Amino acid sequence: MSSKEIKNEKVFSYLEGLRGELPEIRAILLFGKNTATYKFALCHSLMNLNGDNLKTEIKYEDLSEDFVRELHKHHVSCPNQFNRKEPTKLEKAMDSHSRDEINFKRLLEIAQKDIYNNVFRAFQNLGDGTLSKKHMLFENHQSDKKLIITDRLAEILSDSSLVELVKRENQARWRVVEEAWSAGLSTNLVYDYEKQRFYRSDKKVNRVYLRSAVETLVPYQKGLCFFCSNLMTDIHGKEYELFPDVDHFFPLTLLSKEPILSVNPNGVWNLVIACNQCNRKEKRANVPAEKFYNKLLLRNERFAIEHSHGLKFSILNSLGLSKASQIKDKMALIWKTFETREKWSPK
Ligand SMILES: [Zn+2]
Fold first, then answer.
1. pLDDT 10s per residue in the chain (347 long)?
2. Can you give the pTM of this predicted structure?
């Protein structure tokens, strides 16, 4: 079971700043390479192991039915579950099942070949390596077709609110990948302040509202307020001081006075998630301090690690760039524009 550990510095630093129970599962969802959306289907099935289903040893077959049902559900609403030009055998089988030509049992048999050979083994790979023993969520015993759940995963599964959170973030992330693939990877997400949701700005006619901006972006911040680093939660309602708000890092009012920068102020590059206290009560139309600018730059560069996911293209589009290597200079130019303004930090 030896494989090389993660070397990518931006992924590594994400994991090393460990706090709470979710960094590993979030890292898998954010930085895992995908040629199919299997990771998300497996994450979904793993999260359904909570409650009475929670055991240390899990057989592949305990997960595969739920896995295939969820993958099929997504396939029905978006046929782009694989980043390939030609439909795969499994896609054809899912279509046949939708048309009632084959039953679920047959679909499961076809799917299991792929799942058993690839999915469990590849789940914990991200970027250029795999999760180290310390971070591992399960040990994969391929020859026995079973997983041994580690304490890291058991901790999540024994807390129903964490399970719900992971499920929501997993679905949001899954949607990003599907949309990127169905749009031929040119997805251009823009934020609608009124509706608090992303839409795809390359669809000019009908503005189609997508997932919540919070659930898409908050995993990159590990659930913490971008500024005060308190753990945010939406369970006490919108007026609660730690409710997660979408915040424009550089205020809209300032950016709209600088058309020369040719950036979209509502683009992903400029959005962070901040608690109600920081966003609505304190920061308002101020530019945050330099240490937060550096944090934003790192986060935006992390988006660009994603190989074929939508956020990389969204960030480049909204900054008016064509290559990830240009992010640093463009961000520096924006920062310089507001250099002389007084800067804000949370109290
Ligand atoms: Zn805050």
1. 446 777 777 788 888 877 788 989 998 988 877 778 899 999 999 999 977 768 899 999 999 999 999 999 999 988 888 877 788 899 999 999 999 999 999 999 999 988 888 899 889 988 778 888 889 999 999 999 999 999 999 999 999 999 999 999 999 889 888 877 776 666 667 777 777 777 766 655 455 555 578 888 888 888 899 999 999 998 898 999 999 999 999 998 999 899 888 898 888 899 999 999 999 999 988 999 999 999 999 999 888 876 556 688 888 888 999 888 999 999 999 999 999 999 999 98
2. 0.80
CA of 294 to the centre of ligand 1 (A): 17
Residue 250's SS3 state is coil
Locate the domains of the chain by residue range. Answer: 9-161, 187-344
- Residue pair 46/63 in contact by the 8 Å Cβ criterion: yes
Question: Whose structure tokens read 């979209």?
Answer: 264
Please give the distance, rounded to the nearest whole angstrom, from the Cα atom of residue 244 to the centre of ligand 1: 9
Distance of CA 227 from the midpoint of ligand 1 (Å): 5
Residue 159 CA, ligand 1 centroid: distance in Å? 24
CA 341 / ligand 1 centre spacing (Å):
21
- Report whether 312 contacts 304 (CB < 8 A): yes
Distance between Cα 276 and ligand 1 center (Å): 7
Q: CB-based burial of residue 35 (10 Å sphere; 0-12 exposed, 13-18 middle, 19+ buried)?
A: middle
Ligand 1 centroid vs 336 CA: distance in angstroms? Answer: 25
Q: Classify strands 343-344 and 287-288 as parallel, antiparallel or unpaired.
A: parallel
Q: Which of 238, 237, 303 is nearest to 271 (CA)?
A: 303
> Of 330, 336, 256, 252, which Cα lies nearest the Cα of 286?
252
